[in-house]
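Quarterly update from the structural biology core.
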Amino acid sequence: MGSLYSEHRTWLHAVPAGWKLGLLVLLSSGVFWLSTPVALSVACAASVALFVSLGAAMRPAGRLLKALGIAAVLVLLFHAVLQQPLVGLVSVLRMVAASLLSIALTLTTRSGDLQAVLERLLTPLAPLGVRADRFALQLALMLRFVEHFFVVWKRLDDAYRLRTGKGGGIKLLAPLTIQMLQTARRVADTLDVRLGE
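Predicted structure, tokenized:
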């Protein structure tokens, strides 16, 4: 599977995965507590500064940033049509701040490290019958699939662009869905064989 993880070392790579995950939860929740455009602008600027500080490690996320920019414009337009430009601005600032923090975590943290953190966090639930290892694996797979399907979409788009000279856009939904289903089937079969009881 492909991954958005960047091998280009940055200062954020040196921060333990548990700290990064905890800070992501706190900061993302904090963004949704803020309601004024000024406070959200400061939070968004801080997220942009953190993201830019990653330097060359940002490269794998280029297409993801483009998609985020398009989504931000669409949200602004939607609220402009509803004559709620301030609501649109607040929504976009929250979305950009939280997304950049999440992308920074993905770029600088291996999925295996995240899985280990989740396993440690879930271990106290073992007396309640929760299989921490299984649950952590499911969460890690979910995160991994998001990365993987983005990489697949990028490859399909590149192939389409080579053939036609333009991006595939919505035309890629059908082949992407087929690839997703095939991958999910392969992973399910493998887990069934290795973990089945």
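Helices lie at 17-33, 37-52, 62-81, 85-108, 111-122, 132-164, 173-195.
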